[in-house]
Specification:
- There is one protein chain.
- This protein has 242 residues and is mainly alpha-helical.
- It has twelve helices and no strands.
- Helix 8 packs antiparallel against helix 11 and helix 10 packs antiparallel against helix 11.
- The longest helix is centred in the first third of the chain and has 43 residues.
Length: 242
């Protein structure tokens, strides 16, 4: 017992034979046995939750920001108020925003609180990118569409939005990576996602394996999501490849 105490804290092992706990007890840099034992019960559920949190936040943020950008594209007076409000929301530190939302009735320590905060961080990025993409469509292209008999709505859907897609998807890429990052902090509020094993590892005297594995999974998720969005852009804009 004295030898174990001198070696440092005993890391939780979540089942298994005592002979397989040597790496965890020593808190070495990476213990593959711990990962294999806890993949289905700890890591995989946290990864699924993280993906769901990200998809919900980015989807809702995309709908809101795109709608606002389309209206501001036709009604220029709306641009500045939207940018001011979304900029303020974007500059609030995540922990402070969670703290502000938590006392509101209907929020509390829940997924709703986490999602509202995550959505707020996507609005400025996607709004500005969508609006910039639409306004960068050359005037002669819009004139050509009008000369072909297209109305404003036809021109928007068939000409302007397709040409603005690279800028729009660029905004979605930045927003997605941002949400994946901030969703780890949201674990303090809703106890979901890859932030949970990260916080657990820190509370267990910084258990290196769990901390490194969960952190690496969050980085890998961001890279995969960004790569998929790049492939989506290439598929939707074949003329850009040419």
């Amino acid at each position: 017992m004295n030898l174990i105490a001198a070696a440092g804290p005993v890391i939780p092992t979540f089942g298994g034979s005592p002979s397989s706990f040597t790496c965890e007890r020593a808190n070495r840099l990476f213990c593959s046995d711990w990962v294999s034992r806890n993949w289905s019960s700890v890591l995989w559920p946290a990864l699924r939750q993280h993906v769901v949190l990200t998809l919900i936040a980015v989807s809702i943020g995309f709908l809101i920001s795109t709608t606002l950008a389309l209206v501001a594209y036709r009604r220029r007076w709306l641009e500045r108020p939207v940018i001011v409000v979304t900029s303020i929301m974007y500059t609030i530190p995540s922990l402070a925003l969670f703290e502000l939302l938590e006392p509101i009735p209907g929020f509390g320590l829940s997924r709703t609180t986490a999602e509202v905060a995550l959505v707020s961080y996507t609005l400025l990025i996607m709004f500005r990118n969508t609006l910039t993409g639409l306004r960068e469509v050359p005037a002669e292209v819009r004139d050509a569409a009008a000369g072909m008999g297209m109305g404003p709505m036809q021109s928007l859907l068939r000409v302007e939005l397709p040409l603005a897609l690279p800028a729009i998807i660029a905004g979605v890429r930045i927003a997605t990576v941002t949400v994946i990052s901030l969703a780890t902090v949201a674990a303090l509020i809703d106890n979901e996602g890859l932030g949970v094993p990260i916080l657990t590892a820190i509370s267990n005297e910084v258990f290196k394996t769990e901390l490194i594995t969960a952190g690496a999974m969050a980085v890998a998720l961001a890279l995969v999501a960004d790569g998929l969005l790049v492939l989506t852009q290439r598929a939707l804009t074949p003329w850009a490849r040419a």
